[in-house]
Structure prediction request, 560 residues.
Amino acid sequence: MSQPPKSQEEINALIAKKRAEVLSRIASMNLPTSGGASAQRPTAPPQQQLAAQPAKPLDQASLQDTIAATRARIEAKLKGQNLGGSTNTAPPPIQTQPKQQTHAQELHPMLRGDYKPLGHNAKRAKLSTMPRISSIKANQRKEPPRQLKIEREAPASFMDPEKNPYYDTHMGGRPKAEPQTRKHAKQFHFVRPGQFVAQAEKQRAEAKMEQLKAEIAERAAKARLAEEVLDVTAIRPPEPPGVEWWDMPFLSNDESYDSAFKLDGADSLVTVYVQHPVPIEPPEPIRAMSVAPSQLILTRKERKKIRRQRRLDQQREHREKVMLGLEPPEKPKLRMSNFMHVMATQSVPDPTKLEAEVRKQMGERLEKHNAQNQARKLTKEQRKEKAESKAQEAEARDGLVCAVFKMDKLSHPQHKYKVTVNANQMNLTGCALVCPQMSVVVVEGAAKFVKAYKKLMLRRIDWTDSQPKLDSTAHTSLEQMPLHQDQEASEDQVDYSDNVCHLIWQGEVEKRRFTQFRLRKCPAEIQAKSWLAGAGCDTYWQLAKQYDPNDNITALDPFA
Prediction:
């Protein structure tokens, strides 16, 4: 504690100052002062009251006791407000000049500082009983957190995970002295359906492509010759002409487009006149028709509905004419199952005679039906003409398709018969070349019949079958296939257990290269090549020779 002042003026000023502080603090708490008269009338400011009262002389001992008591009381009050604690002993009240008071009013125990809560939870009881008023600490502004100062930088080995296993790489480039703030959690990013499936399919396609490229490169390295490498240009289409036929009338030279144009002159087709096409008369069958052909194509269900409605109209019209007496009614259609029911209203003196009449009507109806079928039946020439016309229509509609087959052996007579006869029946042209090394079958025709011929070659014929030869009637139908006696004798010892047929090429062609289907035996490979070269199909033999059934690149889907 500091030394007390020595002069009387300093002592009086200090007392007045402390008294003003105490009164101002009491006034801020809205506490009434002691005395009833002072509570009713307005009080003047503490400074004026102190100034109005004259300072009385005090002795030195009483002055020091008063100052110590006032200081202890103020410290206890401030400690109770800031720390929420309570003291066991209340400081002595401030000794002021005695006044005449009629009624004494005591302070609240919490304001006096001698309040002590009861029970084991004294802190909760105190907080619940404290008045809800604004305190000085509640009105204080929050100070920003202090930033720690880095005295010296960390060495380079501190941020090396190999030298410092306790270093966290998520802290960043340099260690931070201040506490790290927690980052917000990342939001959900939903994946579109099928995204990873598409990525997997793309990776599989790339891997398959790389595998195919490696196989092609390996096979090309083994071949050692450019002509042996299978390429898409194995069958080369004809090169386009230098000048198209529709441009020739407008060029002075028919060999190149670089020549001058013929746009003027008497022989030029470019004039100021408009050329109208000459109308062409329709064919005779269409001209002879009374009603123009319908361009509307109906479905099967619609055609059946129109037929049913037409037949109903005809029956209704016939019934109306019978009711009017214009036509005689039809006789009942008697059968053995219904003639007793039909003739129930009539007297039947001789049932045997009635039965004979019923059987006679049934025979007449059957003969009439057979006569109508025979009249509609086509002759052999008409059936052949109809088949040829249908084949031509299919060829004109779908185009020409060529297919090339390869098999190890084509020496069995049954196999030769099926290959030749089915090709002729389906109006297919081509050839079948039989060689000791391998056999090649080439057919060309409409897509519909080529598809049926593929089923015959790849499914229906059992190429491993070694049944006995056909009878004499089958041999007479193969007069086009002469065989030597020594070759016929050697066919009995041929092993067909590993014989198989493969489709090695299929595609569209511009025109037929064969006039009919023929089977030829070629003892040497050069004969087969020369015979195919005469028809412009020498590349087919090269394809058959290069074909490998175990190669997934050259293998074809026969029914794709």
The chain has a mean pLDDT of 76.
